[in-house]
Specification:
- The complex is a heterodimer of chains A (370) and B (342).
- Chain A has 370 residues and is an alpha+beta fold.
- Chain A folds into two domains: 225 residues, Rossmann fold, CATH 3.40.50.300; 131 residues, Beta Barrel (OB fold (Dihydrolipoamide Acetyltransferase, E2P)).
- Chain A has eight helices and 20 strands.
- A six-stranded mixed β-sheet of chain A has the order 6-7-8-3-9-10, with helices on both faces. Chain A has a five-stranded antiparallel β-sheet with strand order 15-19-16-17-18, with no helix packed on it.
- Chain B folds into two domains: 232 residues, P-loop containing nucleotide triphosphate hydrolases (Rossmann fold), CATH 3.40.50; 86 residues, Nucleic acid-binding proteins (OB fold (Dihydrolipoamide Acetyltransferase, E2P), Beta Barrel), CATH 2.40.50.140.
- Helix content of chain B is 24%, strand content 32%.
- In chain B, the strands form four sheets. Chain B has a six-stranded mixed β-sheet, sandwiched between helices.
- Chain B is elongated.
- The chains are: A alpha+beta (370), B alpha+beta (342).
């Protein structure tokens, strides 16, 4: 197992820059997700680490060794694709054994390692089955078996669960994470599904337009998104972004009030100043409380019952700004109701309107939850 | 807009009994959602109401009239499919106007135009009326398809997974829109889905289907809080309700005949086991952002069970911790799977 280090990695396809000077390190044994919408550069980054694409600039180090220009076959890495690339004419055992045979492993050693990989994935009972008759989940397990049997330095996975249905995908997320906890193999996992990334990763790199916007733990990214892009990409429903205003001369360090729709709201005290007058206030749906006496007024557009909780879609008095609140289902709320909103003052993020960057504030000091 | 009624309807396709003695009644203006996995009989029910299939036994009535043997054209219903079926060579306006231009209707151009404008405004696509249908995004196309189904004010609108080909964000937005449009028009809708979130958020009442049988009909809250059986309990709630054998929890007070105890993830309280082994150990902590799902492994002799518990991110437990669990409002099920009142 080994650390993966990416330094100023860049990839251009003609005029199109797919990856812009990415620098990050995946620690030995860490599980990192590259998360972003299609076209953000996540798969290109992964393919460069694998050696399937050559970078336009920058370096890739695997376990301290510079492999930037090394051929894929010489890098001790296993790649798992979205579509399980199995040999349909071979049985499960032969499929898993294949990469080892290519390395010249034979006889008892070969049998032992195939059995071990199968046991790790709990597919021992399938070893003599034909792959053509397997369910999609079992096929993906066999594909994983073929990756882990080599005991490579790192695993690279490109949306390996993308072809599975939602229920099964969630089950496989649990299995993949459990597998990681057993093997502790350095893993880079590409996905566009925020819930997969939140569920499995030690750290998530959120990518947009070829750039990593934030690289941090799932909880950190959720609680303190670095940009409005990250704020909106994470969470279901995502973070609400509300236009807000301060005085004409902007906000000074220590400022802890902004106005939303003319109503003054408290927020964590800023650690840095910023030019105004307009900003964006970020609030998670679970931090919006319906309170009859609150001065920030809204009308209820619709409600969605989700069991213990409901999601309430609201429109502010300007008629344009919508936001969502996640509240308990017992709360009687109907479309058309006029309500007041209280936003949890300690949990709000303030973003620059110009570049979408989060302003540093008391939110960034100390523990996330209190 | 009308009420509809399916009475004792059965339907067989060769060796497969698709529906067994199904009785369902929807009031005028109701939004009824049929929920079930593939093969449960959802789409067959929809097609029976549309007249695309003929029932082997039983009766179908719409607005009080028996339509059991009427052709689809003779029933005043509309159908929205999973794939938007628009006329690609026509504009949005012409797609919406198409059903209104039917000679049977004898509407003049001004009246059709007014109706199209009204529906387009309701769907928030009034600025797209002169676009070719193919120039729209997926969400807009499905909006038009829904609009076309509602524009002629059918007695019942039938929808077969109309949102499932859209991405998650769009699906979430259209859910809220569809509910609003239905509320404003007062259309009676029968909607079919295997997506529990759609069922919970859209329905006035949900009908849960299991292998051609309607096993429970009720409001989303009824179905969620008072499921008739283990099967229904597992259809709603994500992650699924925890089910444990009664014998594993000897100290929990439960009715005599209880065989299985059900607890939704939010109805469990977890605490670190004081010294002892506790009920199980933390196997995995799944971060959701606003909360965590704590996955426990509970040993029961040779058997192992997984227990998923919704916790606060600040709960301070780590993988490997031995924990004790308290039950809030558990559900009790007998050996036959039916729920027993506590």
């Amino acid at each position: 197992m080994a650390e993966i280090r990416v330094e100023k990695l860049r990839k251009a396809f003609g005029d199109f820059v797919a990856v812009r000077d990415s620098t990050f390190t995946v620690a030995d044994g860490e599980f990192v997700c590259l998360l972003g919408p299609s076209g953000c550069g996540k798969t290109t980054t992964l393919r460069m680490i694998a050696g399937l694409e050559l970078p336009t600039g920058g370096r890739i180090l695997l376990g301290g060794e510079d492999v930037t220009m090394q051929r894929a076959s010489l890098r001790d890495i296993a790649f798992v694709f979205q579509l399980f690339a199995l040999y349909p004419h071979l049985n499960v055992r032969a499929n898993i054994a294949f990469p080892l045979q290519c390395q010249g492993v034979r006889g008892a050693e070969l049998a032992r390692r195939v059995e071990q990989a199968a046991a790790t994935l709990r597919i021992t009972h399938l070893l003599d089955a034909r792959v053509s008759g397997l369910s999609s989940g079992d096929r993906q397990r066999v594909a994983l078996g073929r990756a882990i049997v080599r005991e490579p330095k790192a695993f690279l996975m490109d949306e390996p669960l993308g072809a599975l249905d939602a229920e099964f995908r969630h089950l496989m997320c649990g299995e993949l994470r459990a597998l990681h906890d057993r093997l502790r193999a350095t893993t880079v996992y590409v996905t566009h599904d925020q819930s997969e990334a939140m569920t499995m990763a030690d750290r998530i790199a959120v990518m947009n337009l070829g750039t990593i916007e934030q690289l941090a733990s799932p909880q950190e990214i959720y609680d303190r998104p670095a940009t409005t892009f990250v704020a909106e990409f994470i969470g279901s429903p995502p973070m609400n972004l509300l236009p807000c205003a301060a005085g004409a001369d902007g906000l000074r360090p220590g400022a802890d009030r902004v106005r939303v729709g003319g109503v003054e709201l408290a927020m964590p005290a800023l650690a840095e100043g910023a030019a105004g007058p307009e900003f964006v206030l970020g609030v998670r749906p679970e931090h919006v409380e319906l309170a009859d006496d609150a001065p920030l007024r809204a009308s209820v557009y619709g409600t969605e019952y989700l069991g213990t909780l409901q999601v309430v879609t609201l429109t502010l008095a300007d008629g344009r700004t919508t936001l969502r609140a996640r509240v308990r289902s017992e709360l009687p709320v109907r479309a058309g109701d006029q309500v007041g909103l209280r936003l949890a003052p300690g949990r709000l993020s303030l973003f620059s309107r110009a570049d979408g960057r989060a302003l540093r504030s008391a939110l960034h000091d100390g523990a996330a939850h209190g | 807009m009308a009420e509809f009624r399916l009475d004792g309807v059965s339907k067989r396709f060769g060796a497969v009994q698709a529906l067994r003695d199904l009785t369902l009644h929807a009031a005028d203006g109701e939004f009824v959602v049929l929920l079930g996995p593939t093969g449960a009989g959802k789409t067959t029910t929809l097609r029976l109401l549309a007249g695309l299939e003929r029932a082997d036994t039983g009766h179908v009535t719409i607005g009080g009239a028996d339509v059991t043997s009427l052709s689809p054209a003779g029933r005043d219903v509309t159908f929205v499919f999973q794939q938007y079926s628009l006329y690609p060579h026509l504009t949005v306006r012409d797609n919406l106007a198409f059903p209104l231009r039917s000679p049977a209707r004898r509407w003049d151009a001004a009246r059709i135009d007014a109706k199209v404008r009204e529906v387009a405004a309701l769907l928030r696509i009034d600025d797209k009326l002169d676009n070719k249908a193919t120039r729209l995004s997926g969400g807009q196309m499905q909006r038009v398809a829904i609009g076309r189904a509602l524009v002629r004010a059918p007695q019942v609108a039938l929808m077969d997974e109309p949102l499932s080909s859209l991405d998650a964000k769009l699906r979430g937005e259209l859910r809220v829109e569809l509910k609003r449009i239905q509320r404003e028009l007062g259309t009676t809708i029968l909607y079919v889905t295997h997506d529990q979130t759609e069922a919970m958020t859209l329905a006035t009442r949900i009908g849960v289907l299991d292998q051609g049988r309607l096993v429970q009909v009720g409001t989303p809250r009824d179905i969620y809080e008072r499921p008739a059986s283990v099967y229904v309990a597992t259809r709603l709630g994500s992650p699924a309700i925890n089910l444990l054998p009664r014998a594993l929890l000897p100290r929990l007070a439960a009715p005599e005949a209880t065989a299985t105890i059900g607890a939704r993830t939010e109805h469990l309280r977890v605490r670190r086991a004081a010294g002892g082994a506790g009920i199980g150990r933390v196997r995995w902590i799944e971060h959701l952002g606003d909360a965590n799902h704590l996955h426990l492994r509970v040993a029961d002799g040779g058997d192992e069970h997984d227990l998923v518990i919704l916790t606060d991110p600040g709960a301070g437990l780590v993988v490997g911790d031995a924990v004790e669990v308290d039950f809030v409002a558990p559900l009790f099920f007998g050996a036959d799977g039916r729920r027993i009142e506590a």
